[in-house]
Amino acid sequence: MATKLTAKSIENIKPTKTRQEIADELLTGLFLIVQPTGKKSWAVRYRIHGKSKKYTIGAYPIFTLAKARELAAAALRQVAVGADPAEEKKEAETSTVAAVVAEFIGKHCERKQRPRTIYENKRMLQKIVLPRWGERSIASITRSDVRDMLERIVARGSPMMANRVHEIIRSLFNWCIENEIVTASPVANLKKPTERKSERDRFLDDGEIRLVMKAAKEMGGPFGAAVQFLLLTGARRAEVCELTWGELDLERAVWHLPASRAKNGVANDVALSPQALAILKAMPRFVGSDFVFSHDGAHAVSNFSKYRERLAAMLPETMPAFTLHDLRRSTASGLARIGVPVTTCEKILNHVSGSFGGIVGIYQKHDYAEEKRKALMAWSDHVSKLTDGIRRVA
Question: Is the pTM of this model over 0.90?
Answer without folding.
Answer: no
